[in-house]
Amino acid sequence: MLKEKGQVKFEEKWPYMRPVVLKLLKQEPVSQPEWQELFYSVHLVCLWDEKGPAKIRDHLHEDIVQFIKQAQVRVLAQREEQALLKAYIAEWRKFFTQCNYLPTPFRQLESALQGKSASGTASVQASGTKKNQHDDSIVRKLMLDSWNESIFSDIKHRLQDSAMKLVQAERNGEAFDSQLVIGVRESYVNLCSNTEDKMQIYRENFEAAYIQSTETFYRLKAPEQLTINGVQAYMKYADNKLREEEARAQRYLEAGSNGVIQCCVKVLVGNALSAILAECAPLIRGGETDRLHLMFRLLERVPDGVLPMLRELESHITSAGLADMVAAADIITQDSEKYVERLLELFRKFSGLVKDAFSDDPRFLTARDKAFKTVVNDTTVFRLELGTGKNSGTKVVAPESKCPELLANYCDMLLRRTPLSKRLTSEEIELRLRDVLLVLKYVANKDVFMRYHKAHLTRRLILDASADSEKEEDMVEWLREVGMPADYVNKLARMFQDIKVSEDLNGQFRASTARHDAINIKILNAGAWARGSERVTVSLPLELEDYIPEIEEFYKKKHSGRKLQWYHHMSNGTITFANSVGRFDLDVTTFQMAVLFAWNQRPLERISYENLRLATELPDAELRRTLWSLVAFPKLKRQLLLFQPTASAPKDFMEHTVFWINQDFALVKNGKLQKRGKINLIGRLQLSTERSQLEDNQSIVQLRILRTQEAIIKILKMRKRISNGALQAELVDILKNMFLPSKKMIKEQLEWLIEHKYMKRDDDDINTFIYMA
Amino acid sequence: MSEDPENVEKMEGDSAKPDRMFTLKKWNAVAMWSWDVECDTCAICRVQVMDACLRCQAESKRDFYGKQDCVVVWGECNHSFHYCCMSLWVKQNNRCPLCQQEWSIQRMGK
Ligand SMILES: [Zn+2]
Ligand SMILES: [Zn+2]
Ligand SMILES: [Zn+2]
Fold first, then answer.
1. Model-level pTM?
2. Which residues form the RING-type domain (chain B) (predicted)?
3. Beta-carbon separation of B28 and A573 below 8 A
4. Model ipTM over 0.90
5. A389-425 burial code (b ≥16 CB/10 A, e <16)
6. Using the beta-carbon criterion (under 8 Å), do A676 and B11 form an inter-chain contact?
7. How would DSSP label each residue in A677-701?
8. How far is the CA of A558 from the centre of ligand 1 (A)?
9. What are the pLDDT digits (tens) for A454-489?
10. How far, in Å, CA of A125 to CA of A160, rounded?
11. Cα nearest neighbour of B51 on chain A
């Protein structure tokens, strides 16, 4: 069957192939056999005729050009631009469709012509990877190149102009066939002869023109909208138009053409920036979340556009928060519950704003947090003065916010048996404690909170005053979760463990003899509870003194190698007071007991301050406080002790001031005298002795100095040498869970460490420090 | 902040009239214990003897507190250390780290 080489000539076959080619070009129906025959013919020519492939290509080219010429005539017959565009698109769509069919039968030409063909083909093969067979085929390229040369290059500007006019018309609300614009774009993309960058012509012509006309359109429209309708309406307009243009770009432009949106943003937002921003503060003030969200959406498109919004938000929260605090100063300085609730209300309000208006965008959350920090750590309404004490001479420490102290007080009210904690359910208490932790996050000096919190906890545990011991221990874990220093949290946890050990011991003590019904002992681990100098001496009433040797004896049997120190300022009890009116149970501190028992021998006598001091051996400050609690206990209509001459504060008592028991003492309830009753006179007296409070403040400052030194050494040990700036940053990071070190303190400690040869300054750069082992 | 006087309530179980104006009904006495040592820091691990030694703190972070098993030991020389620290020390060197006398236990804390 096979013929000899050269037996099938191109010239023989072409007359049969050509009609089918022409049908294909004209989109006329081609039968199955015709279509298959074409494949076979191409195959035979390529196989037998050495020059066949090139001849096929050339003849094909000729026919394609011929066909295009006819199309050109039809297109250019249209004078009017719209009609021209329509005619062009109609022809183009047909032709472009055929670009996908006609090349198929001629695929064998690819291999046959490879390398032999002159310019073009080889590089197409090389550069065009397999991503689309059509794109690479010789015939397709032939078709598209011819189309470009014969029609498109001549009229592309006219086409483009018409297309842009259509887009413009669409912007003005007129509907039209979007395929007209899309067709022009396709021509640009597909007719590009630059194989390296197929988008080049499209970008430089079509996209550029598109951007240009868009910009012209909005340059005119945008200021007009702004002047006529005002900023609020304008923002909506700009937002709508941006979305609209995004959708339009998706229709008419190639994917990845972002230029037009950038241009729209520039014209619609960038050019109106100052007008828009001027609205920001009033909207924040008015809490207009929808409008703010709109503004946020717009400004976010501009580089650094939200920065001014962040500044506005921060300054608004700060000033509103501070103003709120100042306005309520009278209440909140005295009532930690009100203070914390006020703060939380503020937080909720602005957190809500950030959520609704800015979708909790991290940048806005940060701005909110910065403002919250400012409010929480502000010292205008009230301040905590931390003195360094006499040993440090003239050093004055900047006053600090009282917030951490009030937070700790509030925690105490929730965790202790108080009217507040009784009123709330367990869930409500937990929620409020969580709120405290939320505020605590913003507190710069957490060490102050820790100090007060620990003092309150101590008081609750010693007085068995916790409302819910489970919640107490939960709170310790929550403090751990929010990042309070581990050694601090461990110490709190250790107090709980220790109080349990002590309870066991008390049980054993009570069981050891029947005589001690009246006595409970708490013998605690000094390492977990006490700071060295807190102890206050007192001469115990005999009734109490009697028990001491027995308890010590009992303890010695249980333990060895231990010494006991009595903390009478922490101990307390209940005494019964009997007078002519009736009998009353009084919960009192041991100090109060020591004072009152002085009258047991001489019930009706008047005893001078001086003699009371001799009897109790209490230090002056403690005695004054104790007496004051007995002569002026808040809310008591009839006080237990009476005195003369009058005094308006503890410091007014004089050596010869005399005190006597009020024999008419009674409790008054609903205006009626009670002959029996129980009252707790302990109040806030317990645990915080005059001296220890001062020492506490000083020890906080001392501890900060120590921690700062430790942290500096730790950093230097690791880094060996470090710049001042880097050191400060690391230092703040290490200490942030305890306190915010002041620049001044850091500087002082650096100098101290240099002086003591722990470190030195670099000889060449005084802002660099070097570790000295 | 005001601290309410714990509500005024009826007293139950009235007994006979006492002979004194003030009588003790209940006393909650508070004391702190600590090891009876001359120096409150353990010279071996540099931790306060009232706290568990470094090893014990590291080994059981969860329950070292409260547990009293990291006790103190006194030598005949009267120097004191964590028992844990000293029992490791004597494996290397049977002398007191502070005075170099031969180490022998005088007593142990409990
Ligand atoms: Zn040790
Ligand atoms: Zn140990
Ligand atoms: Zn020794």
1. 0.70
2. 53-100
3. yes
4. no
5. eeeeeeeebeebbbbbbbbbbbbbbbbbebeebeebe
6. yes
7. EEEE--TT-SS--HHHHHHHHHHHH
8. 23
9. 888 988 998 888 999 899 999 999 999 988 888 888
10. 31
11. A527
